[in-house]
Design brief:
Blueprint (H helix, E strand, L loop, with lengths): L2 E8 L21 H16 L9 E3 L3 H20 L7 E3 L43 H18 L4 E6 L1 H13 L16 E7 L5 E7 L7
Parallel strand pairs: 1-4, 2-3, 2-4
Antiparallel strand pairs: 1-5, 5-6
Helix pairs in contact: 1-2, 3-4
């Protein structure tokens, strides 16, 4: 039996002084703290005898994930160079992008432009089945499509996938509980965290799920 591990990494903290729900909006980059978070996770991956054997790095197309992926790629490629291996590049895939949310551009909190104005709060009555955009089932389905493709493509190997909180947790919840619907307030997907999911390369059965939070002390 061979095993394939997909290491899902959530991006680091974003520069967002106006507290907007940025969703898929362009122009939202990692903050200084977010850069340090991504670098901490990059060091963690480069120092791990298992993770630093990863043979590919994928990212969603948004700036915050691309920047996190680059911070991971830099030390990882130094390890590869020391082994005489070719450097990796970032491969972009839209299936691991942030969830679609109709509240994009609104502000968290109160005042003009706030999420809770204009009756928007009525759409947030059920945290398990969002009614304000892409459903958890849709999110998990596209991530599963991506993951199963990569399990076949990289059988017996490890890869890094930089994505977002909702796609990572919805997919994990589906694998563990049999359904992707969940209370979004109970997610365990810290900024710049690593969720490693190992699959049987032949059957796609989940063999194990591990979670790491390398940037928890970064401020």
């Amino acid at each position: 039996m061979t095993a394939t591990t997909i290491n899902f990494v959530r991006h680091g903290k974003v520069e967002n002084p106006n507290h907007l729900l940025y969703e898929r909006l362009p122009g939202f980059h990692l903050s200084d703290v977010g850069q340090r978070m991504a670098q901490a996770t990059g060091r963690f991956i480069a120092d791990s005898p298992q993770l630093n054997t990863s043979v590919a790095v994928f990212s969603s197309p948004l700036e915050r994930t691309q920047e996190t992926a680059q911070a991971i790629l830099n030390p990882l490629n130094k390890v590869r160079e020391s082994r005489g291996q070719e450097p990796l590049t970032i491969e972009t895939d839209t299936r691991i992008i942030e969830a679609r949310n109709e509240f994009r551009g609104t502000r968290i909190g109160y005042g003009d432009g706030a999420l809770w104005r204009n009756g928007n709060w009525k759409l947030v009555r059920n945290l398990w089945k969002p009614s304000w955009g892409e459903t958890y089932k849709e999110i998990a389905a596209r991530v599963r499509d991506f993951a199963m493709e990569k399990v076949d493509q990289f059988a017996g190997q490890q890869i890094i996938v930089v994505s977002h909180e909702s796609p990572i947790w919805s997919f994990r919840h589906m694998l563990e509980k049999g359904h992707p619907e969940h209370n979004m307030l109970l997610r365990k997907t810290a900024l710049a965290s690593v969720t490693s999911i190992t699959f049987d390369s032949d059957t796609h059965e989940v063999l194990g799920i591990a979670y790491f939070d390398p940037a928890k002390d970064v401020h």
